[in-house]
């Protein structure tokens, strides 16, 4: 009996840690919110401004957060902690347009189900838009969102002039099932909870 109780408690904790049950494929907006909230990093693609790569696509990994972990902590806004010293941020200073891909492949979900990261059932989301610095009124929210998931950030070198930014979403594509991408509008995305 004790083993069954431990198994139930473990299952409940895993469900909470993952932010709850994965949304069904017909709820693409909820899936997009779920994937972003349960991922701690993404691949940010910019148009390079670097010598020898100017105008070419350039992808880089960035830590991100839409709010503290847990089923009720997400705003849906991808926040980032950036410095002008970073090569992709230098690209963004010339052209702030970017795309951001986040995938459940970084969570235990896909491994548990033996889904390859390229399998559509291992859901991933592609956001298009631009990176903007957050204003003073939003900085506290961004700080809480990021530092709650990435506590190491608080100790990063102050002389790097870190700043809080957000991904301003204009387009969203969801790949979470067979049959191709689903388009979700930002209005649909922000109107649902993960």
TrEMBL record:
GO cellular component: cytoplasm; endomembrane system; extracellular space
Presence of the UniProt keyword Glycoprotein in the record: yes
Subcellular location: Secreted
Domain CREG-like beta-barrel: 23-191
Top-level taxon: Eukaryota
Protein keywords: Glycoprotein, Secreted, Signal
Signal peptide span: 1-21
Entry's family note: Belongs to the CREG family.
Protein name: CREG1 protein
Organism: Rissa tridactyla
Lineage: Eukaryota, Metazoa, Chordata, Craniata, Vertebrata
Name of encoding gene: Creg1
């Amino acid at each position: 009996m004790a083993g069954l109780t431990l198994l139930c408690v473990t299952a409940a904790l895993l469900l909470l840690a993952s932010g709850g049950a994965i949304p069904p494929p017909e709820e693409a907006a909820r899936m997009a919110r779920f994937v972003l909230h349960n991922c701690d990093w993404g691949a940010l693609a910019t148009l390079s401004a670097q010598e020898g790569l100017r105008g070419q696509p350039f992808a880089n990994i960035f830590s991100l957060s839409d709010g503290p972990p847990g089923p009720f902590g997400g705003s849906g806004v991808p926040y980032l902690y950036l410095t002008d010293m970073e090569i992709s941020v230098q690209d963004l200073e010339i052209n702030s347009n970017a795309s951001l891909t986040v995938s459940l492949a970084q969570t235990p979900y896909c491994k548990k189900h033996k889904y390859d990261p390229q399998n559509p059932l291992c859901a991933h989301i592609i956001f298009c838009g631009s990176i903007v610095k957050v204003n003073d009124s939003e900085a506290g929210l961004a700080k809480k969102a990021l530092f709650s998931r990435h506590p190491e950030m608080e100790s990063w070198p102050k002389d790097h002039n870190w700043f809080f930014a957000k991904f301003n979403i204009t387009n969203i594509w969801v790949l979470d099932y067979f049959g191709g991408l689903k388009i979700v509008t930002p209005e649909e995305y922000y109107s649902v909870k993960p």
